[in-house]
Amino acid sequence: QVQLVESGGGLVQAGGSLRLSCAASRRTLSQYVMGWFRQAPGKEREFVAHIAWSSGITVYATSVKDRFVISRDNVGNTVYLQMNSLKPEDTAVYYCAARELLRTYEYWGQGTQVTVSS
């Protein structure tokens, strides 16, 4: 079992930055992949980025590549999503998720709202 708690959302102007955090309850995450997803009003949830905890390998959606950075803190068992050059279309509820290697995402946080004003 992994419990995930997100924080760091809020309201920001276009071009600004926000950093989201996701604290994981599980002590050992070496066999996990941690991901960020988002869901805008009226749209389906979409993948944003993920990081393999052990290797640190990252993958990004094309829409956020070169603007967002996902990272992890091994000591605090926390995953971050640094969001730069934010656009109004980045407005969404952002969810942290976790899965074991080679499995689908099984654990989800409660979500945190990010609103980007134009």
**Main sheet properties:** 7 strands, mixed
**Helix and strand element order:** EEEEEEEEEEE
Helical region count? 0
Based on CA atoms alone, the radius of gyration comes out at: 13 Å
Helical content stands at under 10%
| DSSP strand tally | 11
- Distance between the terminal alpha carbons, to the nearest Å? 40 Å
Chain-averaged pLDDT:
95
Give the overall shape, derived from the CA principal axes.
globular
Fraction in beta strands: over 45%
Structural class designation: mainly beta
Contiguous uncertain segments of 5+ residues: none
Secondary structure layout plus pairing:
Blueprint: E1 4-7, E2 10-13, E3 18-24, E4 32-39, E5 46-52, E6 58-60, E7 68-73, E8 78-83, E9 92-100, E10 107-108, E11 112-117
Parallel strand pairs: 2-11
Antiparallel strand pairs: 1-3, 3-8, 4-5, 4-9, 5-6, 7-8, 9-10, 9-11
Short description:
By secondary structure, the chain is mostly beta strands. 0% of the residues lie in helices and 53% in strands. The mean pLDDT is 95.
